[in-house]
Amino acid sequence: MVKKIMTGDIAAAWGARLSKAEVIAAYPITPQTIIVEKIAQFISDGELKAEYLHMESEHSAMAACIAASHTGARTFTATSSQGLVLMHELLHWASGARIPVVMANVNRALAPPWNVWVEHTDMMSQRDTGWVQFYAESNQEVLDTIIMSYKLCEDKEIQLPVMVGLDAFYLSHTSEIVDIPDQDSVDKFLPQYTPMYPLDIEDPLSIGSLSMPHQWYSEFRYKIQEAMDRVIPKLNQIEEDFYNEFGRRYTGPLELYNTDGAEVVLIVSGAAAGTIKETVDIFRKKGIKVGLIRLRMFRPFPSEELNKALSKASFVGVIDRSFSFGHEGAIFSELKASLYGAKHSPLIKNFILGIGGRDITIDTISRVYDNCFNCLKNNKIDNPVEWVDIKV
Amino acid sequence: MKRAGIPTEEFIYSGHTACPGCGAMLVARYLLKVLGKNTIMNIPACCFAAIPGTFPDTCLGIPLLYNAFETTAATASGIEAALKIKGKKEKITVVGFAGDGGTADIGIQALSGAIERGHEIMYVCYDNEAYMNTGMQTSSLTPMGATTTTNPVGKHGGWKTRKKKNMMEIVAAHNIPYAATVNPSYPMDFIKKIEKAKSIKGPSYIHAYSVCPTGWRYQPEIGLEIGRLATETGIFPLYEFENDTYTINYKKKTKQVIEYYKLQGRFRHLPEDFVKEVQRVIDKEWQRLQDKEECSHR
């Protein structure tokens, strides 16, 4: 194992390289560009044996990945923001086709106005496309999650595409120390991809043909959900194997930070978790019982795990770095639905934070925790969905 | 007994759902007869997507991948790249098979990208001159004067007045190694060109004339006659673009546009003056094509 200082984008490229992706079809977009540039360099230098396709759009990039995967190649692509939403049609296609594409998405806000900084709306608005969704906190996690994602999505019981989100600039362009796993160990961990139903001239199948209402369409859709139901148990097993091979432990769809005995628990996804952990430490030193749940996975949504983790919390503050217009933050909605009918139902409030890359600081989080305690003290939520520090 | 030049083996079996007299079916049959068993085909939403059968049935003897409407060329690119990295490309032909809307309208960006990248794929546009699978809406390849459901004829005209896009010129502008027009009414020419396209190291484009009795409104049994008229009038000239040179394969432009137009219900509303205007445009296009052939061989 070699340690190197690298950005999240470079870590994503290393994830694809170590996973031996064979076809990379991509289109450049800030702040994803370094991922595809680095992969192209790996190929030029002979360090990765792969076909790099300079696609003319993200839409075509995903189409090419789907086709290459059907033909038997391990495929990778990376995008961000506008590129991801342009792919939307093909995201549905990939899961419908049960294709194990792995994609890195640098989480970035959507225009207009133009904004290239972090926000999660790009990925949150793909929640119904049948993709497994991870949100990383560190560059190490980006690299490791990509390797684990291949193992997950190529599993015969899963066969679903995976996107790995990394926050624009906070991860994509920020350097951290990253352990690069040995290629031999990765090869041992992640065997070669063999599709179940490839395009094969010796066994000519028609793949993706019409299915009428009385035929099999409903069943195809139902089986996607059946596979989704298997994702979390499978992930837990893969993370255990990963720990045994590489010595780094991941904790399934959630990371719990000081939640034991916590009165107020915040929930967040992405790199802002780092700042919140700092704030938790400061509060805990003062004897204030706060904790954090980092949501690593948004699809499938880990309802059971969250209910269990929140079984003793008095107050839950859900931080959404995205917004579903006409309603509220997406994680907030999902969590409330998960808690419906639960034995223990904490008070819950939504904080909309960090939109369009606005910095989330220790000061911001401290005020969020204070607000939670105030609500708790008054046993009343002042404003169920609060846009924090909005200037209008 | 083998019929001279036409392979006897079939890769489209009975039980398909094409309309009687479907031109696309004839195009696909000839195409696959030449390409043979070692072929992977992909098709977007189009008439042909509804033809081979519903899951899990198929009437095709080759692997077929259905793709999203605008992604035929990108999908073929992905198949080709995977075959290359797996070391299987040498023996397999990858063919994208799309209609005129899927090629000239929604799929043109992907087609442009794939040709520029130089994938070793064959792209076949079967041109039935409208969105026939959805019920004959106008495409950019609907010809001058035709009525469609989105160019309905009323008191104030309403038929399509613009020329169709020239897809051959668009692909030629990409310096494609090989492009050709084919017409199933000329099967030997058709087969020869598919054989040539198959041998090309790089992208090739085939623009296939594809009659549609349902949408063009004529009796199915005269489809091949209509096809011959299309070429004899110069409306659908048979030619190739190879190594930057044009070669016209059928030079006898002996018939008038009106002879072709009068057989089809989609042109029946046209006043004489408009048909004359179409004749003028077709004559000019034919002259330009001859000029291009002459210039490129100079």
Q: Could you state the CATH homologous superfamily of chain B?
A: Thiamin diphosphate (ThDP)-binding fold, Pyr/PP domains
Task: Supply the CATH architecture of chain B.
Answer: 3-Layer(aba) Sandwich
Q: What's the end-to-end separation of chain B, in Å?
A: 44 Å
Characterize the overall form of chain A.
Answer: globular
Q: Judging from the principal axes of the Cα atoms, what is the shape of chain B?
A: globular
Mind describing the biggest β-sheet of chain B?
A: 8 strands, mixed
Tell me what you see in this structure.
The complex is a heterodimer of chains A (392) and B (298). Chain A is globular and about 70 Å long. Chain A folds into two domains: 2-246, Rossmann fold, CATH 3.40.50; 255-387, Rossmann fold, CATH 3.40.50. In chain A, the strands form three sheets. Chain A has a seven-stranded mixed β-sheet with strand order 3-2-4-5-7-6-13, with helices on both faces. A six-stranded mixed β-sheet of chain A has the order 10-12-11-14-15-16, with helices on both faces. In chain A, α1 (8-18) packs across α2 (33-44) and α3 runs parallel beside α5 (88-96). With 392 residues, chain A is an alpha/beta fold. Helix content of chain A is 40%, strand content 19%. Chain B has one domain: Rossmann fold, CATH 3.40.50.970. Chain B has helices at 23-35, 47-50, 72-85, 100-105, 108-117, 167-172, 187-199, 213-216, 223-232, 257-261, 272-297, and strands at 39-43, 64-66, 93-99, 122-127, 178-182, 204-209, 239-242, 245-248. Helices cover 37% and strands 13% of the residues of chain B. The A-B interface holds A 22-23, 25, 49-51, 53-57, 59-61, 63-73, 75, 89-90, 93, 199-201, 203-212, 215-216 and B 37-40, 42, 49-50, 52-58, 60-68, 70-71, 73-79, 81-86, 92, 109-110, 112-113, 116-117. β9 of chain A pairs parallel with β2 (64-66) of chain B, so a sheet runs across the interface.
